Amino acid sequence: MKIAYSWLQEYLDIQVSPKDLGEKIERSSVEVDSVTRPSDGLKKIVVGKIMSMEPHPDSDHLQVCQVDVGDDDLSQIVCGAPNVATDKKVIVALPGSRIGGNVKIKRSKMRGVVSNGMICALDEIGFSKDVVPKEWADGIYFLPDDAKIGEPVFPYLGMDDYLIDVDVTPNRGDMLSVYGVARDLGAIYAQTPKLNHPHVEEVGTAASDKVSIEADEDLAPIYKMRIVENVKIQPSPRWLQIKLWNAGVRPINNVVDVTNYILLKYGQPLHAFDYNKVSGSTIKARYAQKGEKLTTLDEAEHDLNEKDIVIADDQKPIALAGVMGGLNSEIDDQTTTVAIESAVFTPTLIRKTAQRQNLHTDASQRFERGVNRGGVEEAADAAAQMMHELAGGDVLKGIVTGSSYDVKPVVVNITLSRINHILGTDLSLDQVKAIFKQLGFGVTLDGEKYTVTVPTSRWDIHIPADLVEEVARIYGYDKIPSTLPSGPTTVGALTERQKLMRDSRHVLESLGLNQAISYALTTDAKAKQFMMRESAETHLSWPMTADHTTLRMNMISGLLDDVAYNNARRVKDVALYEQGRVFYKDSEDEVRPSEHEHIAGAVSGQLVVDPLKNAKHNAIDFYQLKGIVEKYLNNLAIKGDIEFIATDKYPEMHPGRTADIFIHGHYVGFIGQVHPSVAEAYKINQTYVFELDLDALIEMPKDMNQFEPISKYPSITRDVALLVDKSVTNAQVLAQIHKRGGAYLKSVHLFDIYDGKNLPGGKQSLAYTLTYQNPNATLTDDEVNQAFEKVQKTLVSELGAEIR
Q1: pLDDT digits (tens, 9 = 90+) for 568-613
Q2: Residue 460 assigned as binding residue
Q3: If 0-12 CB within 10 Å is exposed, 13-18 middle and 19+ buried, where does residue 469 land?
Q4: pTM listed for this prediction
Q5: 298 known ligand binder
Q6: Residue 115's beta-bridge partner residues?
Q7: Does the record bear Cell inner membrane in its keywords (predicted)?
Q8: What is the assigned CATH class of domain 496-699?
Q9: What does the alpha-carbon distance between residue 226 and residue 397 come to, in Å, rounded to a whole number?
């Protein structure tokens, strides 16, 4: 929210510069995004008066104007604005001036006619198009008649004022108003703000004779309305327009501008209805009904939800409560009777309505954070009186109330010792009491116990901790002493689980994968991909975006998004892993899902990029990734044999290049190639992935002592080539070799596979190297031969192999 420095000066005697004031607000209250002056960067823009004009000789829309800019001679300026007129005072950018966007204006010719500068519209000197009043949106701006020719235009447009842009946190909704900021600065500088309060001039007719209100207290705890008749719609006075556009609000007319002015001043959202467009005499605050629609003031049509709050007449909704009014009851040039709504709506309902309808406004922002419930009536009175003064309206007697309750100040008790203990200060009774009084709180003292009465304008204060915070910030955070904590210290250490999780990351990084961190929230479709177990989805009640609606049940989909991001930027070689949690629910009825630690990887392109090799032929394949997974599991020192069993149960995986992973018969994950159709949907190249249940791996027994001394005795190798059926797997062969290989069999290596011509149908040739070594003595050929013969016999008898 932008607040003009001069507006604050109306209520406080401020003796500090705007930038120092902004710094003080940031150090004591809320963050300040910027302190700026709209005229900064602009120069040589002055008041000019159009003395005469004539049509351009070579154009049907340009006018050649003679303009008095305070010099001895008139300046000739060519202007194409449709509303240019003589005897009007206008904004003139002289030659050599700088206007909006840092554009430099030079003396030039327009279709052969000299133009000494430029007659400017508001948006051309830096105003946002969103705040330019409609009457000036398509033409130049006319300055007031009392503007002095030749002087800078900035004071006449409020551009010489400083604007303090405060970024208000959700708990300080009171700071979303000029009065709220003034009260806070009054506390900081020990001043009492000179706030004015309205005195309403009413006429004899009672407002209750014109309108009645029905309001559900659960939806609108407070709902009040004033009626103003015989208003004359016209542009607002310049002082009001300046206040609005400096705050980023577009002036509309003298009725709508009053409601926006009160919003900025009091922080209380108001809405003005054209009473003559309301059907019947009853206005209701209720839930929307099924099938109802509403076109709001921004001309967007909304399908209403049955949980949306609306303001309705006898026939239809006329406003989306607390968010935006309806186009069917807007104030226009023919409006004569205005119904002013001032209310408090339930914050959570307003927030949900604004999210559902994707319609976030200044009003909804304030209702979501809360408003001063004790100031609802005063805001309505102030608006009604301003409409009387600015629009000539007659304010009918009384306020019509649909719902209300007795709003009482909050009373909080706290002791001086508690305050000093929490803050580490040594404040006195009088110091703390003075701070409470500076804040405008009522305070009584009984010994060292304070009984603090908090006004309704500070609805964020409820408990003693809130008072401690108030004392700290008004006293000054920079004055609070810095002390080191005292007490026994302990040596920090990781748990075994934490060590293993950290080690697992190091292992994958050493194997060439880079860590990725993906969102735990994804789409419903992606959450259900690559499932390692059956589970119900966990949906967010109020997702921020359509891409983050569901808690993930796999890690791979997030990694594929990362691969897609890289592929789209011509990064073809991607090797990523991610460790994180997935979320499972056994049934839809479960309130909260269970969390499970998983680790996953995705590799696309070349794992080791070698520019001398053909990238296509050097791309990752199943066996490379399988080796990475095996090495990873071996480094975790898990006891038990690792098995890879082919499977086609994952619809998102290639059915012929996917395997389940088992350790000692326990399922721990899967590995394989992403199905081509899924890869196409993600817009990625051929990619291989794996996902492991890290919780299961952590719980499995470990062989922590893996050290094995290097033998000083030589090893002996034997090669064997087998002719076996194609149905025989490498795992079956290895199992038989290890089963009968003897005590000295150290390793087995498959070095050749052949299934081409010159072999019988349905057969394949597998060739292995067996390495034998005795760690305590030199092996003899007889010992190795005996063990090798046993292996050969077993392969023949168990697998039907033919030794070649």
Answers
A1: 999 999 999 999 999 999 888 888 899 999 999 999 998 877 766 6
A2: yes
A3: middle
A4: 0.76
A5: no
A6: 108
A7: no
A8: alpha beta
A9: 8
